[in-house]
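Let us practice reading a record.
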Amino acid sequence: MMKKRNWVIVAAVVLGLTVVFAGPAAAAEKKFFAITTGGTGGTYYPLGGLLAQALTERVPEVLVTGQAGNASVANCNLIKDHQIESAFVQNNVAFSAYEGKDQFAGKPVKNLRGIASLYPETIQIVARADSGIKSLKDIKGKKLIPGDRGSGTEVDTLNILSVYNLAYKDFGGVDWLGFSGASQRLQDKQADVTFTTAGWPTAAITELSMSTDIVLVPIEEDMIAKITKSFPFYSKVIIPKGTYKGMTADVPTVTTMAQWVVDEQVPEDLVYKLTKALWEKGADGKKESGAEVMAKVHAQGKNVQLKTALSGMAIPLHAGAAKYYKEKGLIK
């Protein structure tokens, strides 16, 4: 575990990110700034690495690094303890963390601040085709993987199960694993169904579909209505057919928003520069914005747009981000 400190962190570099400086003196001037993401089989991990690379090129005083993490709940707790500067989290988890609700009851994360909403995170319910699961009404008694313990995916799983009047005791077995581990269990026939909250296509599901016949389990229209009424931060979304191998029909489900959040203690000027670099090219017009870099490489990167930067933002903005959005006319 990293030790508590102000806003400087030394973090592992992911996705083979290598930055070459002019020499030791230039390197010494750089400060490390981390974006903690999720498991390597999800969407946070590659997009966080790409964003880190783009920001390093655009903001000269920092070396931004993307690092794998245990997703939303764990990331909020790391920010609470000032162990990381920033992270990707789900907007519903960010709201609960700031308000001290649900998993954060009595332990609010009051230093949590928003930089931007990035893209919709879809709740994808994946079952082995030979499990007999065709709808969520069929999952009772099956072997379930609800995501990593304490992750945003587990939060979503519990929310949806509650609307179906189901709890962990209603399953033939429950095991807590990240996306890649869950896919391996399905492939090995040690689990029947798993929940994955991530932008699609999700690498772990894509890989699973290549080796195992799977079904993407739809949520019925009447149950979507109940879910969105009980949990207004969800909205209906359609995963289009062909997203994964063997997927021959559109699948209705619900979605939330992935957000980039930061510790309030990070200096205002730095967060302003990082926010601007997320959305704008360099002054020379040659260095691409973080959003442009993400859009080139991942399907969900195309959904990272300035016009939705504040969608679902239910926590206070960091002062540096707020300054940028005021300049752009998005807030007063």
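A brief commentary: Residues 24-119+259-327 form a domain with the D-Maltodextrin-Binding Protein; domain 2 fold (CATH 3.40.190.10).
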